[in-house]
Amino acid sequence: QVQLVESGGGLVQAGGSLRLSCAASGGTFSINTMGWFRQAPRKEREFVAAISYSGQNTDYADSVKGRLTTSRDNAKNTVFLQMNSLKPEDTAVYYCAAHYLPLLGGTSREMNAYAYWGQGTQVTVSA
To answer: What pLDDT is stored for residue 29 in this prediction?
Structure first.
């Protein structure tokens, strides 16, 4: 089984930066597309970003495009989400997830396409 652990969240002022990490252990990781999702209070969980198994293809929600960047280091079993120019509306719990299909060349925005999820890390952006 795959275990995912997010880290790097915290409190930051608007315009600041954070880098989230997602470390995988206990199973296959490097051949799966990875996704980032977030959930704000009283809102449904939403797609943020995704990266293919090779790292060659990425996808971003319009709300974060140009500000957030996802990357991966398969040798270290780790996926990153670099967050710049943060806004109060970015405040949420951020989750990483592994797609259920191995060797997927593309990406997916669908929550139900991801089989393994981390516990989440809180990001709070003050005005």
So the answer is: 66
